[in-house]
Write the structure tokens for this entry.
Amino acid sequence: MTAKLRDLVQDLQRKGIKLQLKINDNRQTMLSVKWEPHQTKVSLHRMFLSAPHNIMRALSCYIKREHKAIAPEIKAFIEKRRAQLDYSHSVDKSRLQTVGVVYNLEAIYKRLNKHYFKNSLKLLITWFGSSDVKHRSQCSLGLYYDILKLVKIHRLLDSRFVPEYVVEFVIFHEMLHAVCPAFIDERGIHRVHSAEFKKEEESFYCYKQATDWIRKHQMSFFLFQGRQCA
């Protein structure tokens, strides 16, 4: 137990709080507090072992219910540290599917990585979903799992109907999430696309053509919802 974590526990004990503390290494819940009648159960991701004093103070206030909601600085801390986590080793690479009927994701990813990112990104990529468009009202064309360093591209794009520059743009968009991660703004609101992200996105060689194509076909074919997911 680190000194700052020990101070947190001692502060809570002085307030008469019976604490059950667990340090986890999971990929989903970074902070969980359950106030039960006879004890308070707290589960913290290991990232909190190196949290600064202001974060630990805010965490103490939240556990003591002096703050009704998780403080913005705690949310910002979690979001920043999440971007630094790497659980890509847990991905079963044998299950990744990069070769489609029309497009090869790995080949496109490598081309974009070289041209736009100087081969600096170390991401995984795969197809997901079904190419069947029947009864489909919406779908996400691309997803980025930050902790897994994994880009997932919907199989709806693996079609001769879809121009290659559109597939490239969706992959590029998801790759940008690794460079310009999500953040918590000054009001404590989770933001996926920063001003830097949008500026970099517009540097794509067919930005206008790709976004125009998606906008034109989104109602009749699918709804573009490029977003980050964890």
Q: What stands out?
A: The domain at 88-229 is CATH 3.30.2010.10 (Zincin-like).
